[in-house]
Amino acid sequence: DAGVTQSPTHLIKTRGQQVTLRCSPKSGHDTVSWYQQALGQGPQFIFQYYEEEERQRGNFPDRFSGHQFPNYSSELNVNALLLGDSALYLCASGGDTQYFGPGTRLTVL
Amino acid sequence: GIQVEQSPPDLILQEGANSTLRCNFSDSVNNLQWFHQNPWGQLINLFYIPSGTKQNGRLSATTVATERYSLLYISSSQTTDSGVYFCAGDQRGAQKLVFGQGTRLTINP
Fold it and tell me: Which of A45, A39, A22 lies closest to A107, judged by CA?
């Protein structure tokens, strides 16, 4: 039973660029959530996707957008990258119990 | 939204010691979970514990929902227990987890 998977593992971008991160949920899960974890902080909720629609959103600007595919996998897109976007991006799937992927570490130079 | 406060922020112990980590919530929460974040960033599910007490080996957790707090107990600590422990919950089953700042546990041999 595959858990939540994410790609890539690491990514280095420069300010102003755009980035796409990918997530496949745990088998049998249809809901995907994305979190941003800055260094030394707890994860913060970005948004959640269900049935290919954004169902909830946290306090993040419109530069952060996402998509969910019919197979329930998801993408997180960040436009016009800022230095402050450097963080570990975590994907989670599940209902009442959330299961997390290994994360993508994004560095913006 | 809810606020989550974890204590202590840092804890350094010798191998074999016992520890208690605490999580306080500013309001009623659903779907309370405890996680261990390993050095590579992976969030490992420890307990889903909206109320009551659960045990898993050397770890146990208790949530008193009416008083809005949860405790994580680690007995006979091992060096592999080192890492950051997070608690998280959501409101009204929103599946939008709010995390505390974490407790960094260091177990020295």
Answer: A39
